[in-house]
Design brief:
By secondary structure, the chain is α+β, with helices and mostly antiparallel strands. Helices cover 17% and strands 32% of the residues. The chain is built from 6 helices and 14 strands. The strands form 2 sheets. Strands 1, 9, 10, 11, 12, 13 and 14 form a 7-stranded mixed sheet that branches. The longest helix is centred in the middle third of the chain and has 11 residues. The protein is globular. The two termini are 18 Å apart.
């Protein structure tokens, strides 16, 4: 099913032996448009350390109780590599994280996109290529929410939410709030139609026109968000499904 990432903030994280924190943020790849990590706050009552978890390892999601279960112990999660906010995630940090949990590195040759992390085969550093200081395409959901949307002919609204497939954790829609403008509303379209994100300028740019976005069908988060809605949006924008 499709899920609003905003709605998942605050979901409880259940380890195999009890509560281990809550969902604080998501890191997504703005090239493949996929959620790479869940950022968990390990504090149960007060804020705690922030750690990264792979969404593909979620063993059970209780949507009614707002709980996500993972196959790790409380101690494993709480003592996992910590995450400093507002800094890019370096490949070195990702390597440390994947080694800690024994996950297959998604960037290694032969690992298919969306595959659940599993105990990895031997991977030699020379196979991984040059290690960058930080991945420029790994974005914080909390950071990007509120970024201005700039259409081909001017600014219109801001990013409010992303909708993800809870099986593959690919991002299927970006939700735009156009209420910065008179008689605005919420609309949605494919994140693949975002041309680029300007991290420094806090804006996302698209080749769509203002009128296309302004006149799009209104997005109602209270209504079912599914492939049928996605098809209607693709038809409206005249894009192939």
């Amino acid at each position: 099913m499709f899920r609003s990432l905003n709605d998942l903030f605050g979901y409880g994280i259940n380890a195999v032996d009890g509560p281990a924190g809550s969902v604080y943020d998501f890191y997504f790849d703005d090239v493949l448009w996929a959620v790479r990590y869940v950022v968990a706050d390990t504090g149960v009552i007060l804020p705690g350390r922030k750690v990264l978890l792979a969404p593909q390892t979620i063993t059970e999601a209780d949507w009614a109780s707002r709980l996500l279960s993972l196959p790790h112990t409380q101690q494993e999660i709480r003592e996992g590599p910590s995450r400093e906010e507002d800094k890019p995630v370096s490949r070195q940090e990702e390597e440390e994280l994947h080694e800690y949990y024994q996950w297959a590195p998604y960037w290694a040759p032969g690992v298919p996109f969306g595959a659940a992390p599993v105990p990895p085969p031997p991977v030699h550093p020379e196979d991984l290529g040059e290690v960058p200081e930080g991945d420029p395409h790994l974005r914080s959901m909390r950071e990007v929410s509120g970024y201005a949307l700039v259409a081909e002919d001017g600014q219109i609204g801001h990013i409010e939410d992303f909708v993800a497939d809870d099986e593959t954790w690919t991002l299927r829609m970006v939700v735009i709030d156009t209420r910065n403008w008179l008689r605005g509303k919420k609309v949605a379209f494919s994140p693949h139609w975002i041309d680029r994100i300007d991290w420094g300028g806090k804006m996302a740019k698209t080749l769509l026109k203002q009128d296309q976005i302004r006149n799009a069908p209104e997005f109602d988060p209270a209504e079912p968000v599914n492939e049928e809605l996605e098809v209607r949006l693709y038809d409206y924008y005249g894009r192939p499904h």
